[in-house]
Amino acid sequence: HPTESGFTTDVLALYDWAKARSGNSSILFWGHSLGTGIATNVARKLQEERGVQVDAIVLESSYTNIREAAAHIPITKIYRQFPGFSYLILDSLALGNMFFRNDENVKVLACPLLILHAEDDAVLPVHLGRKLFETARSAYKDKTKVKFITFPEKLGLGHDYISFNPELPALVK
């Protein structure tokens, strides 16, 4: 069964593999949706346990933590009104050791952080990305290292298509 700890360990091994082969090239983490939690977990682990700071992190369609994300995803909308929703759905994530605490992780990171979110994201509402940005911005000593870019609804990028935006390479650079 996939676990948060297992994902984090896997990406840490991938980082070690890439770092050993990259020479002096920069390595950045790019997480999308659930992967944003994995990216910040690994970056925090590297920083706290090895004293290594990743070169940068890009979070695409992010959230604050998995509990808050699950409370806002469309599939849970019809269940939110029922008694026991918090216990049966949201608390079950914690019982399975699934937290993906982007909000806690960004409070201790110092590397450049870019958060990308489409205003028409129907899976993870843009306010979760904005809230994460505000948390990071208030915690970072160097506020210039934290950026938040939203993509207007008219572009139709939704949850999955920010990477299709032709301006993305220039924005990330």
TrEMBL record:
Record GO terms (molecular function): monoacylglycerol lipase activity; phosphatidylcholine lysophospholipase activity
Signal sequence, start to end: none
Cellular component GO terms, alphabetical: endoplasmic reticulum membrane
InterPro entries in alphabetical order: AB_hydrolase_fold
SUPFAM superfamilies the UniProt entry points to: alpha/beta-Hydrolases (SSF53474)
Any one GO BP annotation for this protein: phosphatidylserine catabolic process
Protein name: ABD12 lipase
Organism, scientific name: Grus americana
Gene assigned in the entry: Abhd12_2
